[in-house]
Specification:
Family: Belongs to the beta-class carbonic anhydrase family.
Radius of gyration: 18 Å
Helix content: 25-40%
Number of strands: 6
Catalytic activity: hydrogencarbonate + H(+) = CO2 + H2O
Number of domains: 1
Pfam family, one: Pro_CA
Distance between the termini: 35 Å
Mean pLDDT: 91
EC number: 4.2.1.1
CATH architecture: 3-Layer(aba) Sandwich
Strand content: 15-25%
Number of helices: 7
InterPro entries: Carbonic_anhydrase (IPR001765), Carbonic_anhydrase_CS (IPR015892), Carbonic_anhydrase_sf (IPR036874)
Length: 192
């Protein structure tokens, strides 16, 4: 913890570097990814403060939209699209994902009921080998399922129809740093 504290102490020593951030934010991208500590959106994309609006959830799960039952995730998506006017949404899954791995392997999660119930919202990735420690194919299928879920959010549907929003599926390899993007033309994840 001490290295983090030391960095935080020295981080704000040049307030002039941050003064413009007080004027507000206007990110163009909503970046939906896992809470995993190995996935750092700004590091992956090179984004500076104010350039990414982030939604981080266990397993980068986008819960189904249910009118009248707000969730933090739905509020974040709606705010990003309708208030901030993001023009791109990236759903980024990653290799060695514990959440997707637990689904693929059918792990017993009774000792962690909140995790179990959260993961129950995800569809179990189909036809994915359970002996792949990176769970690559399962994570990629999971990313595509989350993109489909996003399409059902009213704000996303409206913006897509109006041509004001684009959706992207990414897969990040934590063991190499490589990023692959889903290509609708080939229905595969290809190097950026």
């Amino acid at each position: 913890m001490q290295p983090l504290i030391d960095h935080a102490r020295s981080f704000g020593r040049r307030p002039e570097d941050f003064a413009s951030l007080a004027q507000g934010q206007s990110p163009q991208v909503l970046f939906v990814t896992c809470s995993d500590s190995r996935v750092v959106p700004a590091l992956i994309t090179g984004a500076r403060p104010g350039e990414l609006f982030e939604l981080r959830t266990a397993g980068n799960i986008v819960p189904p939209y249910v009118s009248g039952r707000p969730t933090s995730e739905a509020a974040t998506v709606e705010y990003a699209v309708d208030v901030l006017g993001v023009t791109e949404i990236v759903v980024c899954g990653h290799s060695h994902c514990g959440a997707v791995g637990a689904l693929v392997r059918g792990e017993d999660l009774t000792a962690v009921p909140a995790v179990r119930d959260w993961l129950a919202q995800a569809e179990t990735p189909s036809e994915a080998p359970d002996d792949d420690p990176a769970v690559a194919e399962a994570v990629q299928n999971h990313v595509l399922a989350q993109l489909l879920r996003l399409r059902a959010y009213p704000c996303v549907r409206r913006s897509l129809t109006a041509g004001q929003l684009r959706l992207h599926g990414w897969y990040y390899e934590v063991h190499t740093g490589a990023v692959r993007a889903h290509s609708p033309d080939t229905d595969s994840f290809e190097a950026l």
